């Protein structure tokens, strides 16, 4: 197993990077942040359509038989998805890739793999083709090691009622995947947000003031919203949610890597250009040693993130991925935050400017750090497999 | 319809470009190679014409071994096959030599329509389309901002200083395009995967019946005598408004042909 990027991964990266360079410059993202607050739509739907449909990134995890690009024989896998996330992190792109093409898709894939469900297959086909966007109605901060109990209930008439907070990607979702509690066991339900004839107000997405402006969270409420059951489970567990959160956490590491790389590259470029005392500020040891340390941290983060992506790719449906994911998440979150902090600091006054994108990266890095399990959750999860139990 | 698109790998304009001091040719290893931007519009136009009229799109690129990256991008965008004209004897060819080599390769491949970008970002002669047409005895329709094909007739809107000309010719023809013509697509993941399986034929000068004494640095008609780094940008002209500021600004723009 090599963790280096393959030729296909580099070409995919080039395509995504070209698109983002054309359509997702930092000034475009800042503009979207401004207008998103007013319009209630933080995402760039046109950019997402080009990414999902034309470049085809939405189907990277979906098997070929369902219309996606994933296959065991040289097709796409979590490694390609990880490269896309690196680029999206590097641009803090306001697109629902993580929420739709990773989290929601993984939940559906688990449901489809377990029971071969018709609903899951149909939804995956639509998601892979970029015809629909989905979101998993679970708090973004939920830990994969202790997924929250479903807060929504399913009535006998096939409608769901309840409220979930802290959801990402709901504003742009055509389908919401909701874990629900049954009298005995749990289920995963699919709620269409805009089918013809839906009772108005059955699904409400209320924006919440969020730290991360490029991927804000929202509160989603269902009031007797018509739903389709995607899969059911007998116990109190929600296996689809657990799997989605765990695999999502593994891939989130690549987004964090992308954030950190942008911060380092941008800061290095800045300190080479900015002069003080008649020399570039980057020539001062106090500055360059900090950046050299950061480079080392990022090298470690890249190894951890690539390892997680490769393990996920090797075990697309099951398998022991916990160690790789927990190592990556325990490490990459802090690296991204540190990189973003250094970026703000070493840019001096300009780093504190609203018009400079540095704050977007710091906020994204901070939100990512507590998303899908905190570094502490992931370290705790490592205790068992690494045979290092916490002191009693 | 058999469409051949000529693409060139050029050093990334975002990086510093250098000439090699020993033979005064472009140092292609010093910068990242990218597809010449205008050639992406040519590939896109070829793909659109193929989608509308059927046929096949062949990519032709002349360049060193690493030009295969450029060829793969064109294939990932959707071209069907590629020909890579690659021979050390071609190194340093000027526009005349290049047009001779490319025209020989085109004769070997066969074509109904040749499309290329109107100029490259490195050499910037903008001459290749005209030279190719002359050598191939085909009509040249340069600087096209719109291409229409009906049967064997090809109609082109050709950008000029005063607007555009409508010109018409019959196939086979050589067309060069400007960036106004379309919006090039991004390679899709499936396209990238499919490109790996598409045939890329490599031709040396003997394979394409190219006479060695007409190409290469030694046989170039033009010669780079000397080169120097561009001088740092001089201060611009400052127009102080004394009531006639607007008129003088307009005069300046007119003298540079902006208005």
From TrEMBL, chain A:
Every Acyl-CoA dehydrogenase/oxidase N-terminal domain range: 6-130
UniProt cross-references to Pfam families, sorted A to Z = Acyl-CoA_dh_1, Acyl-CoA_dh_N
Q: Which UniProt keywords apply?
A: FAD, Flavoprotein, Oxidoreductase
Per its UniProt record, what InterPro entries does this chain match?
AcylCo_DH-like_C (IPR036250), AcylCo_DH/oxidase_C (IPR009075), AcylCoA_DH/ox_N (IPR013786), AcylCoA_DH/ox_N_sf (IPR037069), AcylCoA_DH/oxidase_NM_dom_sf (IPR009100)
Q: Which residues form the Acyl-CoA dehydrogenase/oxidase C-terminal domain?
A: 240-381
Q: Which cofactor does it need?
A: FAD
What PANTHER family does this protein's entry cite?
ACYL-COA DEHYDROGENASE, ACYL-COA DEHYDROGENASE FADE28
Q: Which family does it belong to?
A: Belongs to the acyl-CoA dehydrogenase family.
Q: What is this protein called?
A: Acyl-CoA dehydrogenase
Organism the protein comes from:
Microbispora amethystogenes
TrEMBL record, chain B:
Q: Does the keyword Electron transport apply?
A: yes
Spell out the Gene3D superfamilies in the cross-references: HUPs
- Which residue ranges does the record assign to the Electron transfer flavoprotein alpha/beta-subunit N-terminal domain? 23-212
Query: Which keywords fit this entry according to its UniProt record?
Result: Electron transport, Transport
Q: Which domain of life is it from?
A: Bacteria
Question: Would you identify the family this protein belongs to, as annotated?
Answer: Belongs to the ETF beta-subunit/FixA family.
Assembly information from the UniProt record: Heterodimer of an alpha and a beta subunit.
Q: Would you tell me the protein name for this molecule?
A: Electron transfer flavoprotein subunit beta
Q: Which organism is it from?
A: Microbispora cellulosiformans
